[in-house]
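[User]
Um, tokens okay?
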Amino acid sequence: MPRVRRRTRTAALAAALALMTTGAIVMSPGAVAGVTSLEVAPAASDLYVDPTTQAHAAWEAASGTDKDLLAKIALTPQAYWVGDWADADQTRQQVADYTGRAAAAGQTGILTVYAIPGRDCGNHSGGGVPESEYARWVDTVASGIVGSPVVVLEPDALAQLGDCDGQGDRVGYLRYAAASLADAGARVYIDAGHSGWLSASEAARRLQLIGFTDAVGFALNTSNYQTTADTQAYAEQVSAQVGGRPYVIDTSRNGNGSNGEWCNPRGRALGEQPRFVDDATGLDALLWVKLPGESDGACNGGPAAGQWWQEIALELAANAHW
């Protein structure tokens, strides 16, 4: 499918969203909800800042220099992660609350769906819902979506395809999830690892197993540290092999690039602040998918995955180049 000029796509959806706000239009398939093509892109409105994050709580409790540093994290839009740490109905309520607040603010929320069976091959973020329950779980979660959030679908799932037992029909699960979430109004990007993991051709091959009938594009560098420049060069190679599909990049902790470690490496920095991108490349947005300050796992002195670690949060903020 030929790429259209990104400014045209942005303007088209901005107009549609404005009409939606006044109730002046009736949605048609593929119009705004469940975007399935490159014809429209998110409006260049602000991304939503969630005041319920651990970073926000730490910032409110801090004082002095620590408060100034933590503001860099707490007041920056970041993704809201959903997974098997709550049951499906609770997660649906959480999604409805988060996306509802974003929509009410006239802003775009970012969801990260992270519950694939065999998640993380049993490592620091191991878990996931049972194979027999994944489709129902996704449908229940999707039913809570309000508006048109960006969704990063299942970090590491495609990059780890076939690496361990317990994955079930992972390709089928990802296809189903992309369809369910897109039908609910989300703009879905399939996670495809990072530039230091799969070759561009292998990433493209795996993405094509899922296809883009429902997903808009792909996501890179989730929770990793590869530089934006390296990631974008890699992403353009992948995009060229999947029909010019767009992509998003997680820049949350890549300000100093990677030192080869992935689990709580020291000396890293916050990356570029999130924003939608409207240029001649395939880049749709720079996002903070990983929440800076939340541990990668019990490694390098950090607490369990997802727990707040103030020491590393302050280090990331102090090292930021902005």
Q: What stands out?
A: The mean pLDDT is 89. The radius of gyration is 18 Å.
